[in-house]
């Protein structure tokens, strides 16, 4: 899969059943600046967008196939050894209020290139049932990371931040809290040329601007009750520009954006009073962001999903492998208490090899 950050394709090889997901190998294929920018440009309407999206659909299908084939080669396996590929694709538009979510990365290309049955289009069945179509990983979190007798939160710090609330083995809720790294990355690239703020080093150089932080926190999405989901359609650079007065030092804006992510995450988690927060996604390596969260979640143990046995950079990809397994075994992959769908549903569409 390739997430909101659109920085790499993550491919994993897993042995999976209802309650076990053993990661056997992992491969990450970086997306170059040109492809990254092509993806981001299609998050907005523009000239010739259907043709551009169609070309990207095929191009990403080829890249996803490349990632899968490289992973097989490194693992010494052949296509006949693999039951299926689960491909989330790359989201271009997520519009549950309109009734659709659009991911590109042709499953026909993947299945044809690899010779492996491919399961894709995981979000739209849930949306057709009145749900948000996101987040879809909480069922996987419940199956793999729930711990009897303990309140846990699984926190994904990807482009967007989302949480799964687990009370023992019960899945209570899950939703997008707001931006994870998406604004931090975009502001960093605009002012430094770097794709991301390594370890939050640039954020540390600035000072949080209280007035700006309060304006950011005034976003109505943050006060909405869950079920809810969001993405680049809301939290983007023109949204940020409307909050700025024009005289702020870039490093102070970066520091404020780090505090904004930490506050929105903590505000979502604190009412649940978990004993443990398990963190995954690229933000797990931002020690500055994690230090802010630690201060805002006193008495809560914050650690990586690695402690629970799943590589924090592989959790999302493993989740879509599990959803492919669930599709083939007719196991519901959504959770109505998370997405707001009218009922449980088997997710995905099958593209035979």
TrEMBL record:
GO molecular function: ATP binding; kinase activity; phosphotransferase activity, alcohol group as acceptor
Enzyme class: transferase
InterPro entries referenced in this protein's UniProt entry, alphabetically: Anhydro_N_Ac-Mur_kinase, ATPase_NBD
A Pfam entry, by short name: AnmK
CDD domains: ASKHA_NBD_ANMK
EC numbers for this chain: 2.7.1.170
Family statement: Belongs to the anhydro-N-acetylmuramic acid kinase family.
Protein name: Anhydro-N-acetylmuramic acid kinase
Gene of this entry: anmK
């Amino acid at each position: 899969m390739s997430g909101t950050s659109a920085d790499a394709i993550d491919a994993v090889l897993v042995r999976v059943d209802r309650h076990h997901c053993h990661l056997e190998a992992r491969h990450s294929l970086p997306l170059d600046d040109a492809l990254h920018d092509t993806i981001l440009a299609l998050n907005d309407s523009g000239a010739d967008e259907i043709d551009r999206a169609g070309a990207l659909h095929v191009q990403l299908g080829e890249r996803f196939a490349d990632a899968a084939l490289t992973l097989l080669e490194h693992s010494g396996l052949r296509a006949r050894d693999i039951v299926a590929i689960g491909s989330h694709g790359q989201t271009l538009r997520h519009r549950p209020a309109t009734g659709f979510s659009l991911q590109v990365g042709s499953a026909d290309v993947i299945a044809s290139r690899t010779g492996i049955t491919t399961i894709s289009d995981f979000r739209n069945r849930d949306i057709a049932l009145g749900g948000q179509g996101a987040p879809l990983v909480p069922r996987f979190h419940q199956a793999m990371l729930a711990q009897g007798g303990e309140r846990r939160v699984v926190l994904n710090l990807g482009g967007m931040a989302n949480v799964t609330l687990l009370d023992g083995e019960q899945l209570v809720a899950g939703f997008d809290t707001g931006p994870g790294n998406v604004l931090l990355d975009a502001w960093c690239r605009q002012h430094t040329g770097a794709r991301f703020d390594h370890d939050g080093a640039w954020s540390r150089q600035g000072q949080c601007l209280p007035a700006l932080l309060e304006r950011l926190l005034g976003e109505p999405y943050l006060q909405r009750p869950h079920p809810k989901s969001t993405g680049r359609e809301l939290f983007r650079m023109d949204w940020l520009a409307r909050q700025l007065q024009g005289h702020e030092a870039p490093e102070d804006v970066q520091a404020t954006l780090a505090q904004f992510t930490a506050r929105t995450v903590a505000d979502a988690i604190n009412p649940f009073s978990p004993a443990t927060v398990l963190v995954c996604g690229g933000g797990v390596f931002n020690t500055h962001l994690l230090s802010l969260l630690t201060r805002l979640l006193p008495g809560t143990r914050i650690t990586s999903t690695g402690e629970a046995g799943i590589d924090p950079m592989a959790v999302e990809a493993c989740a879509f492998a599990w959803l492919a397994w669930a599709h083939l075994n007719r196991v519901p992959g959504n959770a109505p208490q998370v997405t707001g769908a009218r009922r449980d549903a088997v997710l995905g569409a099958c593209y035979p090899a």
